[in-house]
Every structure is written in structure tokens, then in C-alpha cells.
Amino acid sequence: MTTGMFITDFDGVVCDSVTECFLVTYNARGKLRNSSFERVREIETLPVEQRQEFRRLRVYLKGAEDFIPLLMSMEQGIDVKDQESFDRFKESLQAELPEFLAAFYAERDFLLQHEKELWLSLNPLFDKVGTAFQERESFENLRVLTTKRQIDACEIFKFQGIDFPEEYILYVKAADKPQRLSELLATYKATCEKSIYVEDQVDFLVASQKQNIASFLTDWGYVSPEQRERAAQNGIPMISQDRYCELLSRF
User: Which one of 103, 122, 141 terminates a domain?
Assistant: First the structure.
């Protein structure tokens, strides 16, 4: 199909979904505690301090199963200071993760079905990246590799006036992302050395770099100081939105 591909993550790179995720997580946690819990629909009614702390901790999440553990760490006053401390807390909840994931998606689906305009409004695109997508005429050499469900990302693109092909949005579990990236390039016979992968999770980039894919960590979105340091240690460049758009324009 092509000699190279531009592959990008979605949440934290294209879309700033943290506000929507906080509202969904808050309601999912409430429903798990009490089935008669009354859903919150106005994010502004929730404490600013909670919203800010949720955004700060978002950098340690890799998939949707992490959101309720994140909120629980806030509730319990757990000192989450790095990836290891969050992963350790999440591991203590391992048996409950399937239930947490189901509750999270049940609440997201409720918003999609009953408050779709609200849900969409809580998923803005990052300014310059969003504009670059809106101005593109073709997405043939571009793929989105994300832990977000395909239909969710597709709805957000449509709301933003972006006719992004649904089949170009590839959903994958966090643990499978490096393998799926490799399979994606092989499927389209894309050359690794001529392809680009952009993420806000450095662990995935360390893996992709070993495949000789030009790998970049965003300097916006959900990136912790710890991830920045690890990127530097592994020779992974950080890029701005301007640089992202310039690289995207080559494909």
C-alpha cells in the first residue's frame, strides 16, 4: 500500500478526553457503591480540586480499566507519585478490574445514548492537531492505534467534522499495543524505517523504537516528568503540536 505510515495514539495526543473520563468514572464509581446513585451530568458541580487531581494522575493510566482505580486512589489518599506506585495500587484490585471496566463502559454508553451532545462536548481535540486533521483531504497513510473503542473515537471525529474512515481506527488493549503496531505495519507492507509512531505513553515507544520505527513522545497531553526522563534515557524525542503537524503533512 505504502512505503511508510503515520500511526498515532488518540487520547492525550489527538483528543483531550480527561474531563469526560472523570465524569464517567465518577458516575461509574457511584453506581458501583449504590445502584440508586443519582448521576452527575454537570462536570462543573464536581470540586475543582478533584478534577485537577484526576488530570494530574491521568498520566499513569494506560487503559480504561485504570480509571476507577485512579479515582479510588484519590478517595483513599494513596500517595501516587510515579508509575510504579499506581501500578502497585492497581494490582491490589486485580480481581475487581473486569467489574470496574464494565461499569466504566456502561456509564460511557449511558452518556452516548442519553446525553450524546454532552459526551461529545467533553471530548475536545487539541487545537493544532485537531485543525491538521480537519484540513486533511486523505487519511490513506494514517492510522489511529488506541485503547479507546473504535466507535467512540469515530463519533468524536464525526462531531469535529472529520471524515476519518472507521476502519483506520484500530482498538487494542494496552498490553497488546506494541504487538498490534508490528502487525499493522506488516499488514500494509509499510517500511518500519519510513514510518512514524506518536504516543503519550513512553513504554509503548520504547517497544516501537526497537522495531526501528521513528518514535515520538508528545510534549502535551498526559505525560509525566517520569515519562519525559525515560524518553530522554532511551533517545526518544519529544515533539510539539507544531512538529506533529509538520510530520503528519509528509504522509
Answer: 122
The tens digit of pLDDT for each residue in 106-118 reads 999 999 999 999 9
Q: Are 189 and 203 in contact (CB under 8 A)?
A: no
For 68, 71, 90, 100, 122, the CA distances from 86, given in Å and listed in that order, are 12, 11, 6, 16, 25
Backbone angles phi, psi at 199, to 5 degrees: -145, 165
Whether the per-residue pLDDT at 244 is higher than 90: the answer is yes
CA dist 54 and 83 (Å) reads 15
pTM of the model: 0.91
Instruction: State whether 101 and 173 are in the same domain.
Output: no
Say which CATH number the domain at 157 has. Answer: 3.40.50.1000
Helix axis angle for 48-57 and 18-33, nearest 10°, is 110
Q: Which spans in the chain are helix H?
A: 18-33, 48-57, 67-75, 83-91, 97-114, 116-121, 127-135, 150-159, 177-187, 202-209, 225-233, 241-248
Number of domains in the chain: 2
Q: Are 198 and 221 in contact (CB under 8 A)?
A: no
Q: Which strand (E) or helix (H) includes residue 170?
A: strand 169-171
pLDDT per position as a tens digit, 30-62:
999 998 899 999 999 999 999 999 999 999 998
What sign does the CA torsion over 71, 77, 81, 83 have? negative
**Domain region containing 57:** 17-122
Backbone φ and ψ of 85, nearest 5° = -70, -35
Task: Tell me the sheet residues that pair with 218.
Answer: 239
